[in-house]
Write a structure and sequence with these properties.
Elements (H helix, E strand, L loop, with lengths): L2 H6 L2 H8 L9 E2 L10 H17 L1 H24 L6 E4 L2 H11 L8 E5 L4 H14 L2 E5 L7 H14 L3 E7 L11 H10 L3 E5 L11 H4 L3 E5 L11 E5 L32 H17 L1 H20 L5 E3 L12 E5 L5 H12 L1 E2 L1 E3 L7 E4 L7 H14 L1
Parallel strand pairs: 1-11, 3-4, 3-5, 5-6, 6-7
Antiparallel strand pairs: 2-8, 7-8, 9-10, 10-13, 12-13
Helix pairs in contact: 3-10, 4-10, 5-6, 7-8, 10-11, 11-13, 12-13
InterPro entries: Aminotrans_V_dom, PyrdxlP-dep_Trfase, PyrdxlP-dep_Trfase_major, PyrdxlP-dep_Trfase_small
Protein name: Aminotransferase class V-fold PLP-dependent enzyme
Keywords: Aminotransferase, Pyridoxal phosphate, Transferase
Length: about 400
């Protein structure tokens, strides 16, 4: 058994890790997909940085941070991602980066088509529709078959590319926020390349719990969060543009603080959360010391499988996310098939069992309850969830 798989089952080890976090009061949070928790040491470092910036004000920022420290932090992030530092620009979150990539993509002509699916983030859908209105292109919208399989996902895109030869750009979500479905990005990107379609990848939920290689996946444009599974303070994300494709994304609204050949011109020039950025080296160090995405992902998948394996075949419950290990991560969705109102059932999970979850709508397969364990979640928490689902079904 691989070390990460064996460690994923080690409750004593993960309790030791959980001790790095301040005690969490009830309810049990099974909605860790929104944003992650900072460890106690990260919080302390963040607070020190806030005080330091407040005291030194612009002296440190102008003399040191802007000229050196922020570049070193970006280089550390690039090392974590396995890419060149010149291919990364900090943003406040994945959404901000994705919106910039979409609105500044300059290879579209009137009459071209762009593609979204039912599982895309609503803001990404909105940005693509905005693009259509302002560039004279048409938005093609598809819905994926449910239940999804590796082959069905590929076939849907293959058929769409053939049916719409004017497609030039598509949104693709690595880990879908509605159901937790993990898209086979590399296989889809290979198909898209055959048909001359560029991909803008939404990696918001992927970074930190899934190991991936952007170059190997064939992705040139992507947006990410650092406050979900990496453990950074809120307000931190970044966009990625493969260096050879930088010219295909215009500077954001004519941004002139950086030259055209600098990726930072693809973001709005503003005062960032400097104390949060200064905290990133410690965040990266803690992420690596735990074992990175391989260790976190193995633990989250183990916790996910504890409850999914116990309830998948129970009458009255439908697990929306497939069990193909290529297509799931820690985030998984379900619904009560004998109850129409999933929001009411989520409220019952909270009120009767002290389990906090979230309802997600918008997928063609219908509303669902998203369940997302975190790195401080325990196997006992999953046992309580299993009992609650069994009793409520």
């Amino acid at each position: 058994m691989p070390d990460n798989t064996r460690r994923a089952r080690d409750e004593d080890f993960w309790q030791t890790f959980s001790n790095r976090y301040d005690a969490q009061s009830a309810p049990i949070n099974l909605e860790n997909g929104y944003f992650g928790r900072m460890s106690r040491t990260v919080i302390e470092e963040y607070q020190r940085n806030i005080e330091m910036i407040n005291n030194s004000n612009s002296v440190y920022v102008r003399q040191r941070f802007e000229q050196h420290d922020n570049l070193e932090i970006r280089a550390q992030l690039a090392e974590l991602m396995g890419v060149r530092a010149q291919s990364i620009a900090f943003t406040r979150n994945a959404t901000e980066g994705l919106q910039s990539l979409i609105r500044n993509y300059n290879r579209l002509q009137p009459g071209d088509e762009v593609l979204i699916c039912d599982l895309e983030y609503d803001t990404v859908k909105g940005a693509m529709r905005w693009l259509a209105r302002h560039r004279g292109v048409e938005v093609i919208e598809i819905a994926h078959a449910h239940p999804a399989s590796f082959d069905s996902l590929l076939e849907t895109y293959r058929e769409t590319f053939i049916r719409h030869p004017k497609l030039k750009l598509m949104a693709l979500t690595h880990v879908t926020h509605r159901t937790g479905l993990v898209m086979p990005v590399q296989a889809i990107a290979a198909l898209a390349k055959e048909h001359g379609v560029d991909i803008i990848l939404d990696g918001a939920h992927a970074l930190g719990q899934i190991e991936f290689d952007l170059e190997a996946m064939g992705i040139a444009f992507a947006g990410y969060n650092l406050h979900k599974w990496i453990g950074a303070p809120l307000t931190l994300g970044f966009l990625y543009i493969a260096p050879q494709r930088l010219a295909d994304i215009d500077p954001d609204m004519g941004e002139m603080h950086y030259p055209r050949n600098d990726i930072r011109a693809r973001t709005s020039y503003s005062t960032p959360n400097i104390p949060a950025l200064m905290t990133l080296p410690l965040v990266f160090e803690e992420h690596r010391s735990l074992g990175g995405a391989a260790a976190k992902g193995a633990r989250l998948n183990y916790l996910r499988n504890l409850w999914v394996s116990a309830v998948r075949h129970l009458p009255g419950i439908e697990v929306m996310t497939p069990d193909d290990p290529r297509l799931y991560c820690g985030i998984t969705a379900m619904r009560f098939t004998r109850h129409d109102d999933q929001q009411l059932m989520a409220e019952r999970l909270l009120n009767e069992y002290k389990l906090f979850t979230v309802v997600r709508t918008g997928a063609a397969c219908g509303p669902c309850i998203r369940i997302t364990p975190g790195v401080t979640t325990t196997a006992i928490d999953m046992q309580l969830l299993t009992r609650a689902l069994n009793e409520l079904r």
